[in-house]
Amino acid sequence: MIARALGQNLTSSIVQDLGVAIVTGTYSDRNPFPVEAQLCRQYGASRTALREAVKMLTAKGLLGARPRQGTWVQPESKWNLLDPDILGWLLERKFSPTLLTEFTEVRLAIEPLAAALAARAAGPEDKQAVRDAIERMRAAERGEDDPLASDIAFHVAVLRASRNRFYAQLTELTSTALRFSIRTTNRYKGVKLASVADHKRVADAIIAGRPAAAAEAMRKMIQEALDLIVDHEEPAPPRRRRS
């Protein structure tokens, strides 16, 4: 059991290290992806552990591999951007307002509807989770909870309260991106804490069973975040320019 755990930890460490190296552009035509023997020496890993790591990176779309052709880094268009690991590595490699803008646009398409669905379908436990998240945000204002974690807990609670299995699957991805998004938008606003009042408007509408009000309150909150990010974005492609 201990040996297996150590092997899994080593594999995870290799995945993390190689994943970051790939998305930061370490490997290129001039510096191709290393061969298996070289990586085994580099990480002090067995071929089994190394191959498992490569298999995981291949499943994420970062690597391609074929017999007798070796292993290579796939173009970014092949990467699974819905994978929380990849999104986290991308956001960490070099802060990208454009990437954050695109993710916030996805949130704008999803979370208002999730709030409306929650207002229709949430059960007692779901509503309590939303209430608890608001209480955590209030506690964060008093310095008794983590502002970032409590904010993320609210958005995750709403996604789960929608009772939509596909939205529920987005909680890990949302949590990963929100860690960057919330810090960024709060910095742009010049505040350290999210507005509890804005979040409570969403929560109150969900708990009262008012779908339209829940959707609109969530939409306004995310649109504000999107506007902040776009306003601070570097010169952008034409589709980002405002009319």
Please indicate the count of domains: 2
Proportion of residues in helical segments: 55-70%
Can you identify the CATH class of the largest domain?
Mainly Alpha
Q: Please report which band the strand proportion falls in: under 5%, 5-15%, 15-25%, 25-35%, 35-45% or over 45%.
A: under 5%
Structural class: mainly alpha
Architecture of the largest domain in CATH?
Up-down Bundle
End-to-end separation: 61 Å
Specify the overall morphology.
elongated
N-to-C SSE series? HHHEEHHHHHHHH
The low-confidence runs, each spanning 5 or more residues with pLDDT under 50, are 1-6
The major sheet is characterized as: 2 strands, antiparallel
Strand arrangement, major sheet: 1-2
CATH fold assignment of the largest domain = Four Helix Bundle (Hemerythrin (Met), subunit A)
How many individual β-strands? 2
Tell me the number of helical segments per DSSP (H or I, 4 or more residues long). Answer: 11
Task: Report what the structure shows.
This protein has about 240 residues and is mainly alpha-helical. The protein folds into two domains: about 1-80, Winged helix-like DNA-binding domain superfamily/Winged helix DNA-binding domain (Arc Repressor Mutant, subunit A), CATH 1.10.10.10; about 95-240, GntR ligand-binding domain-like (Four Helix Bundle (Hemerythrin (Met), subunit A)), CATH 1.20.120.530. The chain is about 70% helix and about 5% strand. It is built from eleven helices and two strands. The protein has helices at about 1-25, 35-45, 45-60, 85-95, 95-120, 125-140, 145-160, 165-170, 170-190, 195-210, 210-230, and strands at about 65, 70-75. It has a two-stranded antiparallel ribbon with strand order 1-2. Helix 1 (about 1-25) crosses helix 3 (about 45-60) and helix 4 packs parallel to helix 9 (about 170-190). It is elongated and about 60 Å long. The chain starts with a helix and ends in a 12-residue tail after the last helix. Residues about 1-5 have low confidence and may be disordered.
